[in-house]
Amino acid sequence: MDAGKTPPYRRRGEWSMNYSDADTLFPVAVQYFGHMSLVSHLLVFVLSIGVVWFFAGILIDSVSNIAKRLNRSGFGTAFFVLGFLTSISEISVATNAGLAGVPGVSAGNLVGASFVILLFIVPFLAVAGKGISLKGLVSKETLAFALMVILLPALLLADGRVTMLEGGFAVLAYLALAYAIRFRPEASQSEMLVPASVGGKRALFIDIGKILVGAIAIFGAAHFLVEQSVLFASYLNVPASLIGLILLSVGTNIPEIVIAVRAVLEKRKDIAFGDYLGSAAANVPIFGMLALLSGGFVVEASEFVASALLMFVGFVFFYFFARSHSVLSRKEGIILLLFYAGFLAIQFVNLARFVAD
Fold this sequence. Notes:
Helix 6 packs antiparallel against helix 13 (273-294). It contains 15 helices and four strands. The protein starts with 19 loop residues before the first helix and ends with a helix. The chain has a two-stranded antiparallel ribbon. Strands 2-3 form a two-stranded antiparallel sheet. 75% of the residues lie in helices and 2% in strands. It is mainly alpha-helical.
């Protein structure tokens, strides 16, 4: 079975008449949801995103509190700790997609999520906040290396097949980036910027409990997101990875969007850039582990060729904008948003092409 598609494709409109594919992947879900209407499935999808949104806010607050109590802050902590924890949605989707035998859903989600973070959320902050400062956060060399690593999954998917060897290479690339981030000269200078906050062990354990509850809730919501994505792909007669690129890439970036909205409301121009870069980079080892644990997988190559090229050009612009004067201006943010608009246009063209076939 082609893991990048939802085989066999069927005619549109056969939503409740034929669930053979979904039944293979989610037999329990089909037993209960098999005769739900399209609107009902959309409601389940939106409700799942709402759960991610709510618990992501709790998780972010708790992680921030713990980081302050441990007197750890700065770019390095944001990159590793917040970067991975705000990627819990992607980790949950990858796990559920792997268990369901549809790794293409997660692959599309991971590529789309990186696109959303660096070519939508960060530029949005630059536009809404009238520019954002990136001064002193990361060296030119480290930023260039990080962007190349983040681009890797899109490049590996461009030929439509990802092997276990390529998955291992993706994990090693992230480890090399982590080493470069951890031991960069400016890390020690920015690591102790936030004073330890007040609060004893009781408050610490409460925050840890909130993180565990939030993680479990997000993992459960991710199961329904993958489930509904497969059903949408079956209904629309499109590859499941395309749903991951368009819908899940936004839904699983709710934690990052929460941070962005808060930054705009609080009129903060010094965003947690380490979190955004770390979250996008964290998608790379998740992608690599997905390939390793699934034994490799295939996707519809046409979805990723243009996306990989557009992401490459967008990242080149991002790099020069970010390093030209250490500030991402409002005008530069608008230019970067055009790349995300182009990405969406390409995916909707692909969607229309598959639906029409």
